[in-house]
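INPUT
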Amino acid sequence: MEKYYYWLHNVSGIGRITFNKIVTHMTPEELYQGNTEKIKELLTKKQIENIKRSKEIWDVQKQWELLKKRNINLFYNGGRGYPEKLSVISDAPPVLYQKGKTEILHQPSVAVIGARSCSNYGSFMAKELGRELARIGIVVVSGMARGIDSICQRTSLEYGGESIGVLGSGVEICYPPEERQLFEGLQKKGCLVSENPPFTQPQSGLFPLRNRIISALADVIVVVEAREKSGTLITVDMALEQGKEVYAIPGRTTDWVSRGCNKLIKQGAGVLLSVEEFLEEISPILKVKYDRGITESIGKLSSEEKKIVEVLDTTLKNMEEIYELVKQKNTDISLPQVMNLVMDLRMKKIIEEENGYYFCNKIAVATKTLQ
Amino acid sequence: MFCKVMAGGIHGITSFLAQVEVDSTQAMPGFDMVGLLGSEVREAKERVRVALKNSGFQLPPRRITVNISPADIRKEGSAYDLPIAIGILVSVEKLTEEVLRNTLFIGELGLNGEVKPVKGILPMMLMAKEQGIKRCILPKDNSMEGAVVEGIKVIGVSSLIETLGYLMEGEENADKMIAPTRIDRLSLFIQEEEKKIPDFADIRGQEMVKRAAVIAAAGFHHLLITGTPGAGKTMIAKRIPSILPPLSMEESLEVSKIYSVSGLLKEGCPFITKRPFLHPHHTISRQALAGGGRIPRPGILSLSHRGILFLDELPEFGRENIEVLRQPLEDKEVQIARNYGSITYPADIMLVAAMNPCPCGFYPNRERCTCTESQIQKYRGRISGPIYDRIDICVEAKAVELEQLQRKEEGKSSRELKEQVMRARRVQEKRYLGSPYFFNADLENKDIAKYCSLGKEEEKFMESMFYSLNLSARAYHRTLKVARTIADVEESEEIKREHLSEAVCYRGFEV
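OUTPUT
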């Protein structure tokens, strides 16, 4: 059955809408067997011509075997295996190509989406979410785009979680190309999904469309960082249309990349104040149990170490800035001493580093040092 | 009659002794020159004939043959004019053969008989000293440069007639006529000290970069300064010469030789007394950087020998240019191969490079920087891993805030910082006595364990640091070398924990 869907989906000139029109009247198999009478008035002459031509050149069995050889699954709307979450939306894709684990399409999931050029704060929150979601076994749905999407998905896989990458290109095309590792990882530990034929090249028009699949596959949507006008907010619109729960992570009002999120909050989106609290809130929706993990205690910090931690936050700072800030607190401390303290804290994983800049999540440090 | 005149030829930055052989016989009148001559030397024929005529000597109608030996080395340059002219005068018996004894002649002739300066005097003089030559007659403009080498009588002449006058006099009278040039090398060094160079005191804040500069200068480590536009990267780099240890006499001769063959020694400054600091523009060609040309000449890399090569906006130099640095940074010399042989120019440099953190320059300030992660990676990728590998110290300069600028207090002065550098320099001198090394940065991997040994506790610390920070193996040796220098600056015999963790702070971003 599926192989005829595969054929029809690959006939040129038959788009999503025409495809849906055809399948409401007859199955692609019937169409292939030669009965075009019933739908003659639905299609243009050219489309009928295309269907005829493609029957001659498309070897249904052989093409299907090739698809299977590449380990690509095909689900059609209404058929077996097609995710229910997807079929209920108004604009459901008629055909879904999938590569990797199939069962995770039906499991409880959270979509984590956000800006491509994210701030350090955004990437930090995306990592936190990825890690915690992986720990309690919730699937992360996202678009494998640069920035928030890929960071969260990567972290989820790193911590043994599962994730669905919804692609705008075909499932055989890795876009963005630098995410090759994540692309391969998703095939093994999660899955890749696309409504386009496997070798479709990325085109700008395809990405807004795939956003509706992201929101449909997820039970809850979290927006980590978004500019005021962004693709992320398209996904949010779709999610609201589909009646999904939307959460946004608040940011500073002066940050461009947090503008979108803050606006969502103003409009009534859920506010994610901490990952733990968020998971407690949504666990009933997802029908999973959530208990906070045990944070490792690292003991008390020395007074000097405290001074360093005090001047840091989640914005990136270099050593010079840290030194200047510590010195402003009227402390008589030398630069080499500061460097030493920072490296010590870095080894204790209290301070983190990116590209030679340092930052720290003070709230997490507070909980770690309290116990 | 046949005679032989000694002259100097240049190959790379070394000189060889060339014999100008002149013969004149009673035969069909003519003037021929042989001996694998470059075009400048072949043209000497006309210059010499006219110069002789205009100095009042009519060549007799004889057959004159000139050969410059060794005949299998190509001779280039214009320094052979004077020896050829003198050789002819001796062979036609205007001068006695006596005047040629133990004497080296160097100089280019003008048509009116004047003697003009030439390149490469210093290597020629060093060669002359080795050959046991006692006296050297060279262009007056080059006489200071020639006098740098002690133990040879240096006579600076300005014209052919003056030369002949000198040669025809007896030894004592001659010296009265033209006094041998003498210079005081030490006083030149002292004069240099007093010259004003930009001082670190002009820079407010930037403690981290200053510290890195001290460590880099102390151990002669290559240094990479990243930072936003206007952070003062260039300003800092230009002040590094003010804290470098002074050139030693041997080093100075090495550097001067390179400048001499390039013809860059200025009058009144017969040899190089301070470490070179060169900052070529990024449009430089590969040949200009490494040296080259049909007749090879030293490039910027060699001209910065024992000094600093500052490459501002490093990624703008283009991958090809930057890759040129690879072998010289490793071997500390540049080899240029031509079909008639290869030439080696020394290039032991301290590379100081500056670059922005991203294409627009404002990363990690996301308010201003819109570069994507991949753009940033691409920008940094313009400099290949092997080059980053050779740069021991990376540091970031941050734009100084207004408030800091307004503060009255001055930063640490170059004098203070140089004191620290000199301390470390003295320690290294002592440590590397009898080894091929000068600075910590020179250490080869096999000797790192010997000179940068760690205590048990420190070793453990280093291990756990590498493990928890996920550092690469290649960062290991770099960290040790830098930690050694930090310990030297702090006057500590052993490398301690704090030196190691400071060294790790300078590792910069890994590609």
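end of record. Chain A touches chain B at residues 116-117, 119-120, 146-147, 176, 178, 254-257, 315-316, 318-321, 323-324, 335-337, 339-340, 342-344, 346-347, 349, 353-357 (CB under 8 Å).
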